[in-house]
Amino acid sequence: MKKTQSHFGRIGQIAYDGAKSENALAFKHYNPDEVVDGKTMKEHLRFSIAYWHSFRGVGSDPFGPGTIQRPWETGKDAISIAKTRMDAAFEFFTKIQSPFWCFHDRDIAPEGRSLAESNKYLDAIVAHAKQLQKATGVRLLWGTANLFSNPRFMAGASTNPDAHVFAYAAAQVKKALEVTQELGGENYVFWGGREGYETLLNTNLKREQDHFAAFLQMAVDYAKEIGFAGQFLIEPKPKEPTKHQYDFDCATCIGFLRTYNLHKHFKLNIETNHATLAGHTFQHEIEVAAAAGLLGSIDANAGDMLLGWDTDQFNTDVKELTLAMVSILKAGGLGSGGFNFDAKLRRQSTDLDDLFIAHIGGMDAYALAFKIARRILAEGKFEKFVADRYSSFDSGFGKDIEKRKIGFKELEKLVIGKLGEPTPKSGKQEYLENLLNQYVVNGA
Predict the structure, then answer these.
(1) Beta strand 39-40 pairing with 35-36
(2) Catalytic residue among 105, 107, 249, 312
(3) Is 244 a catalytic residue?
(4) Which of 145, 246, 292, 355 could tie 176 with a disulfide, CB 3.0–4.6 Å?
């Protein structure tokens, strides 16, 4: 493949300079080559760049058009522009030292006047991406299909009341699965952007959920047919753009998957900002997924607590990320998943430098949180406290309760007989919060 021009000029590969560095274009805590427990930090964290925000985002919001202009957005036609844009993207991936990237089908290739034309355009860009992956070593964490932007999906895709739209969405996902497989994608994500409803006055909720399940089963069947061995992921989100989405939160998704016997085929791709919109903490959603054995991958971003929509900011809250990392490490990690920066620059962040600085901040925050979490787990203070708090279930009638060897009558007899009134025991929340602060302040 011929050498392409540099789109970031003076910006070279981002290096690790250490915590005391004042260089905005250097890592302070993320050293990709640092070996921890026999694996490099790059292997542990499996960072990924979201193509849609970093290379299709223009700084627009509901109140105004885009503010960000990129020098590579030029060419004689849509395909040549898409290829130049992808050249810039892979230059960025390598300079920021991200081992993975993610995309929607319509992020990387223009939509044609028909599905056949759209597929033709997609094939041309996927061939280009395949060359770039081979040349750089950057891999595909996951692919997905955009089933929410085009007006045809205004009432949903797999939950649309029109079977014609369902069929179109199925055909689009079929192609997206094929190209994800061609690019060696390790996962495939379903985000039900409009899989929900605005009003029950015109909605058959049960029928739509049945259709959603049928759609997912078709995907499972087709993946088996073509030999796609990647992990299927569902991304929970409670609202926006629809008022109530069928993938509301992790618990809702788990209930849905188990109801339709799909839980053996899917795990959850958890986004921090979506947890906030559902009224949960990031750690809560991770724990719910992990308890069900369905923790899959992370969309690494954050929302603004003062705003009620999906702001997709880069997360630099080390305390929040430390709690998340503790739960992820306790669950055994993310497997084939990773930490995908589904985050976008602020509307006023228009310089090329800002794209690097934003990702550096996010990667450093996750790396520091990872190290602090490992220290927390190694020292075991929190785990010991929790174990002691539940120790009454480790023996005697408590153990019988957990093993379901005792019932109401026997427990009543114990309470009336020798047990009597329980003695209150402090949960020590303030002590534990202060202890967490000590870990975060002292660092790794």
Answers:
(1) antiparallel
(2) 107
(3) no
(4) 145
